[in-house]
Specification:
five-stranded antiparallel beta sheet; 27% helix; elongated
Length: 157
């Protein structure tokens, strides 16, 4: 079975999806990903010479969400109502989660995913002098709500 991709026309050319006829609604999305690193690097994250890495990564994630349409060629520019970026430090990784919200004609999944991605890259950048064996993994959409397709939640962990 071949599924139709919304960002390609019948000839296979890239196109921006026309959202002009869509109804505005409250929309939200959440995403997560993680970076694996040693426990000593995780412990040192708040005392790095560049400052509190979590706060720098939080701001980078928020800024990236606001610039998603500039980074992803066919993504619509939207007015974001809110972006939240949080961190959970475990023994061998830091999990980054982002939630984005807007009132509009298209979803905010890409903004949540971009926030997570850039926050993780920022943590990598801030800690690369301490370790070269870090790995960014597991970037995925967790939930989305609003719009014609309704609510969705990831069923696997």
């Amino acid at each position: 079975m071949t599924a139709a991709f919304s960002h390609f026309d019948e000839q296979g050319s890239a196109r921006m999806v026309d959202i002009g006829e869509k109804v505005e609604s409250q929309r939200a999305a959440s995403a997560e990903g993680w970076i694996t690193m040693s426990a000593s690097v995780i412990d040192a994250l708040t005392s790095l010479p560049k400052g509190n890495a979590y706060e720098v990564a939080r701001l980078a994630g928020i800024m990236a969400a606001k610039k998603t349409a500039e980074l992803i060629p066919l993504c619509h520019g939207i007015v974001i109502d809110s972006v939240q970026v949080t961190f959970e430090a475990l023994a061998d990784r830091v999990i980054v989660r982002a939630e984005s919200r807007c009132h509009g004609r298209t979803g905010v999944e890409m903004e949540a995913l971009t926030a997570v991605s850039v926050a993780l890259l920022t943590l990598y950048d801030m800690t690369k002098s301490q370790s070269k064996d870090m790995q960014i993994e597991g970037i995925k959409l967790l939930t989305k709500s609003g719009g014609r397709s309704g609510d969705w939640q990831r069923s696997d962990p």
